[in-house]
Write a structure and sequence with these properties.
Blueprint (H helix, E strand, L loop, with lengths): L1 H32 L5 H21 L6 H19 L5 H23 L1
Helix pairs in contact: 1-2, 1-4, 2-3, 2-4, 3-4
Length: 113
């Protein structure tokens, strides 16, 4: 499970850059079209949750309570993204991926306990 947490952590940090840039563009599009959606803001929150959870997952891959913390950030980011995506369709993909990462980290922390 240590390897899975390491891989998930690295993927999360890489996804932070991608999701963050997409969210900035989506937020700019929402502002320019004045449609009242908050997909860009929700995407930035998902990106920040991915970054924090990825760093925590890498740092605590050998055990401890950090698995629960990273799982919590993944799950919160996934829920925020699903609730706030609006017309930002890619955010649904990133949110589901965040939820999957959260479940893997949760299972890994339960297994190592």
């Amino acid at each position: 499970m240590k390897t899975a947490k390491l891989v998930i952590g690295i993927l999360s940090i890489v996804l932070f850059v991608l999701v963050g840039m997409q969210s900035c563009v989506a937020g700019l599009g929402n502002t320019m079209s004045n449609n009242g959606e908050m997909g860009g803001t929700a995407g930035l929150l998902v990106a920040i949750c991915l970054l924090v959870a990825g760093i925590v997952a890498i740092c605590t891959r050998n055990g401890g309570k950090g698995g629960l913390v990273s799982a919590g950030f993944y799950l919160v980011g996934g829920v925020v993204g699903l609730l706030g995506a609006g017309s930002y369709g890619d955010l649904y993909v990133w949110s589901v991926l965040s939820l999957v990462f959260g479940v893997v980290c949760l299972a890994g922390s339960r297994k190592s306990s």
